[in-house]
């Protein structure tokens, strides 16, 4: 079931959103917004990023890193 979501935005922002959705190849603003929501689901939080950095630091200090001259060395 579809529902309508109303947003109150400044006119300039509305123009920008419409232009971006068109430039990105979306047939509607709704499709563009749905796409952005899906992209947002894949983002990690600052806390998750910080935890990952802390874990990487621990691994580095414990000598669990591989010294590679290129990406190919890692594959």
Describe the structure.
The chain is mainly alpha-helical. The protein folds into 2 domains: 10-43; 44-75, no CATH class. It is built from 4 helices and no strands. It has helices spanning 11-23, 29-41, 46-61, 71-74. Helix 1 (11-23) packs across helix 2. The termini are far apart. The relative contact order is 0.06.
Quick description:
The chain is 61% helix and 0% strand. It is built from four helices and no strands. Helix 1 packs across helix 2 (29-41).
Which descriptors would you attach to this protein?
single chain; 75 residues; mainly alpha; 2 domains; 4 helices; 61% helix
Instruction: Give me the number of helical elements.
Output: 4
Report the count of strand segments: 0
Radius of gyration: 21 Å
Global geometry:
elongated
Give the amount of beta strand, in percent: under 5%
Low-confidence stretches: none
Rounded to the nearest angstrom, the distance between the terminal CA atoms is 46 Å
Record the SSE blueprint.
Elements: H1 11-23, H2 29-41, H3 46-61, H4 71-74
Helix pairs in contact: 1-2
């Amino acid at each position: 079931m579809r529902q309508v979501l109303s947003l109150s935005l400044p006119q300039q922002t509305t123009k920008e959103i419409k232009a971006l959705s068109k430039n990105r190849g979306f047939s509607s603003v709704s499709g563009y917004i749905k796409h952005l929501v899906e992209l947002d689901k894949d983002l990690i939080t600052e806390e998750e990023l910080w935890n990952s950095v802390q874990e990487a630091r621990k691994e580095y200090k414990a000598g669990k890193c591989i010294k590679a001259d290129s990406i190919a060395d890692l594959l």
